[in-house]
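Give me structure tokens for this 323-residue protein.
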Amino acid sequence: AKACRYTQRLGEAELHYRMVLNDDPQATVAMFDLASIIDDKGEAIELIRLGLELCSFDHQARCKLASLLNSVGRYNEARVELKHVPADSPFYVDAMTQMGQSFELQGELEQAVQWLARATLRGPHRGDVRGKYGQLLCDIGRFDDSLQELEIAAQLEPNQFIHWANIGLLHQHAGRSHLAIQAFQKSRAIDPGSSHVAINLSLLLAQSGDVPAAIQLLEDVLEAAPGDFKVCEILAGFHLGLHDIQQALFYSEKSIRLGNDAASIYFHLAAVFATLGNRSRCLQNLRKAIHRNPEFAERFRDEEPFAVFHDDPEFSGLAARSE
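Here you go.
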């Protein structure tokens, strides 16, 4: 069972663990291992609970149980379990971290921050804990403290892409574009698969004037994940800004085909048809954009592609009705 588990043959592993438990219903290691690989969280919770009745001092299993309880919204039960982890346990830091996440999931961020602060004091060299603490500090608006924790987390775990991604978001929020670009590039070097990081990085590159690099970056992302309609939408906007109308049209229509129904994509498409002088298609997509978000009624009057229609009564009426 363990061999199958370590080689990711999880179906075979589950079969072997169940055979073990059939022969020995008190095999706690099999219970805990089986709970870690099955999809049914309810069964996993019961397996760990049964195992803890037989082996109450397995604090790692208790933390796993709390994590599962948190994931299904049973926060109070999770906290009860975590209180059974003693302060001298090597898993005490994990227990405090889980306690903080329990309060975070329930929306009690100040309580969550307090627990993560305690966990950080007990485990100052745990990059994962400091990274989580940094994220929570950011969530409550303590951006400088958040950046400090995330930078320490990145020093402790330099190969964790999420630390660099979060550092990039903080620098981006503060307007430090150069530092944000560096952090996002480090994050992508570790894990190129994050489209969120790629999107943020592409927007910063475009803002810095390097639109071709931003386009190339997103085209690489789209090659790996061809169904990402948000990437298509941003590419449409970049090409529209470069007056590459055919590519803007291509990516706008592709984004909609992939399921994008946001106001912004119809606004892009309206701008494309305005540039092409196609009044009816422009008006059709502009109506869709304004229907989904009335703010676009004001915005279109300030956008260059629509200048040609400023004196058109139907366009003027569209803006007036929105007001």
